[in-house]
Design goal:
- The protein is mostly helical.
- The protein folds into 2 domains: about 45 residues, Up-down Bundle (Single alpha-helices involved in coiled-coils or other helix-helix interfaces); about 110 residues, AhpD-like (Up-down Bundle).
- The protein has 9 helices and no strands.
- The two termini are about 25 Å apart.
- The relative contact order is 0.17.
- The model has no long low-confidence stretch (mean pLDDT about 95).
């Protein structure tokens, strides 16, 4: 159920309307998440800036989408799970890759380490065990990538929580959450 509806373009100030128009032009659609964030222009701007900066890092698109899928599943965000499953497919993730990411797994050893570490960060609310950090480092991840993983976790936790609070209507092909074990 929608609890905080997305804002209509004509209901926003000029700057926010321009930002929303840019997002729509870039993506070919205006996702309900973005239109909902527009109710708080500072939150929208912060989200877009962090998303853009984080996308320019060293993690591959597949790794970023796998992190987003794992975090969304863990946090129970069907909107983000659906959106990132669609974006993951566009980035070359197979149905099996998406299913694996939901559990923090991947067939590629480096991708598996990145996704498992992201899931460990979420589950431990940042307080990961030394063994988790050791495992991701042994897989070839340096401390810069560790910080990038944390940045992507934080970005996705933010959108997961906004969607769960707002009850954002899914405007991507729906990918159902898996029940907790």
């Amino acid at each position: 159920m929608i609890r905080i509806p997305p804002v209509a373009l004509e209901q926003t100030d000029t700057k926010t309307a321009a930002t929303l128009s840019q997002v729509k032009a870039k993506l070919g659609m205006l996702p309900n998440l973005v239109a909902t964030l527009a109710r708080a222009p500072a939150a929208l701007e912060g989200y877009l800036k962090l998303a853009e900066a984080a996308a320019g890092g060293r993690l591959s698109t597949r790794q970023r989408e796998s992190i987003a899928i794992a975090v969304a599943q863990e946090n129970g965000c069907e909107y983000c799970l659906s959106a990132h499953a669609a974006m993951g497919r566009a980035a070359g993730l197979s149905a099996a890759d998406i299913e694996g990411a939901r559990e923090g797994r991947a067939t590629d050893p480096l991708d598996a380490a990145v996704t498992a570490f992201a899931l460990a960060v979420v589950r431990a609310r940042g307080g990961v065990a030394d063994a988790d950090l050791d495992a991701v480092r042994k897989a070839g991840v340096d401390d810069g990538i560790v910080i990038e993983i944390v940045a992507h976790v934080a970005l996705n936790v933010f959108t997961n929580y906004v969607n769960r609070v707002a009850g954002t209507e899914v405007d991507f092909p729906v990918y159902r959450l898996r029940a907790a074990a």
